[in-house]
Amino acid sequence: MKGPSPNVRKSHVVAFKIEPDIPDTEAPTVPANLTASNTTDVSTSLSWDASTDNVGVTAYDVYQGATVVATVATTTADITGLTASTSYDFSVKAKDAAGNESAASATLTVTTVAPDTQAPTVPANLTASNTSAGQTTLNWDASTDNVGVAGYDVLQDGAVVATVATTTTVVTGLSPETTYEFKVSAKDAAGNESAASTPISVTTLAATGCLNGVAVPYSESFETNLGAWTQDSGDDLDWARDSGGTPSNNTGPSSADDGSTYIYVEASGNNTGYPNKRAILNSPCIDLSGSTAAVFSFSYHMYGATNFGSLDVEASNDDGVTWTSIWNKSGNQGNSWQSATIDLAAYLGVGLRLRFNRVTGNTWQADAAIDKISLTSDATGNCATGDLSLSITFDNYPEETSWTLTDAGGTTVASKSYSTANPDGSTVTETISAPASGSYTFTMSDAFGDGICCSYGNGSYTLSSSAGTIASGGEFTSSDATEFCVQGTSLRLDTYELTDVDSNDKRFMLYPNPTKGILNISVGKTPIQKLEIFSMFGQKVRSIDDQGIKQIDVSNLTAGTYFARITAKETIITRSFIVTK
């Protein structure tokens, strides 16, 4: 047949040669520099230099005498189950995938230490301070140990109620006007425990604040009415319920965050709804007298013009006589519901009232809304605990991505920005070491204003703690902010020792109190050696060493309750004061 034809198939011939397989018979080199570290009475850690091989080392056999006690892929091995005060010979061999094994390394003799049977010394000078109706702060001198103190057991009426690593703790969940006995014992890593300290008796105070409060947990979404919340009579505007969009355009939510209704403040009407018009909504009395933890959370919507005004959550532990702002947000926050959580650790043991205080700005386009109120008394409530973990998957422009973590005072406690050194679409994981207990705002930002998903790549982020997910997302414009609280165990909330506020001691009085700016101190004849200021969460916010100090400017502190610890000759006195705005 000539010429091409659709029915003719072409054949291809390929020539090849099969060579015999050459086996791998070369053993790895001998592991060198075998050493031991962290040797205890029952264990030791071995390490050595890596061996080499013509193909590759796959594992190491660790010998204790003539017996293989571990096979590892790395150059370290932890050996356990040893006997105290005993010598052991160790060696290591390297092997490859073909089964070739090196000669043994030089033998290393390791002698375990004698068992630790010595208990720490007894904790001394156990004292109580800051005692309220529901809690007290305990402090004591540190114990010593031949190896090291691992922790302290705190005993309340003979039962362990806390184990801490420091020499201070806050014991919560106490009953008003009740006497308790406290003792502390120290222990080391070997399980040796000291005798208990000299006991002290602590009598809690009578309950303060409002009475006959609602029980915790408590929630309200305003589905039927305002529930137990009430309008204030001394303000300018009322809060109203709504189930759809508010009457004004381009402001307010279009629907509720929980259920079908929410509450809001209508800002329309010059000299009626704005400017600087106030709307206050009061909570029922909340009974925290027996709570060991309390977290207040809610959803808020603040969408409209730039000069939107402000929204505060305020707290009162004297039945509404004085109010302290514990949360604040100002300006346009975007057209979406946001979540806020507030740690109420500073108010445990009292009857508490809360209120929303809305002040309109210089525009009618500023309808603020609230929904999904919740008060919990779980050990961690809705708060994060421990270290925070942030996972970010970038879009195609990592250099536009950054984030910040700020505390309740607006101070940046952690932040990071990224660059073209981060590959497009790659993922990074950041660890934020356990922040102190309090309220925080996490903000994810994009410099171009198109978020990290989904126009130019499928980026996303998740911020979480051991308590669960705090924030996640990817679709936003310039920034995505989430408010949350951090709460360790209730025993770590007071980070610093604060002595009792003694109303009978007239030295070092503070005035004016409350104050907006300058806080004066009545020094008298005893000069101040050191002044420290703490937030209501026990966080130190300022420290001044100045023997001539008689006043301090606190205008840059956020509104709230603070404590001034004054150190003078043979004297430490703590005074509380309130900063208002």
Descriptive account of the structure:
By secondary structure, the chain is mainly β. The protein has 5 domains: 32-111, Immunoglobulin-like (Sandwich), CATH 2.60.40; 127-203, Immunoglobulin-like (Sandwich); 218-375, Jelly Rolls (Sandwich), CATH 2.60.120.200; 388-490, Immunoglobulin-like; 510-579, Immunoglobulin-like (Sandwich), CATH 2.60.40. Helices cover 0% and strands 43% of the residues. It has no helices and 43 strands. Strands 15, 17, 18, 21, 24 and 26 form a 6-stranded antiparallel beta sheet that branches. Strands 16, 19, 20, 22, 23 and 25 form a 6-stranded antiparallel beta sheet that branches. The chain has a 4-stranded antiparallel beta sheet with strand order 4-3-6-7, with no helix packed on it. A hairpin with a 2-residue loop joins strand 32 and strand 33. The radius of gyration is 33 Å and the shape is globular.
Brief overview:
Residues 489-503 have low confidence and may be disordered. Strands 15, 17, 18, 21, 24 and 26 form a 6-stranded antiparallel β-sheet that branches.
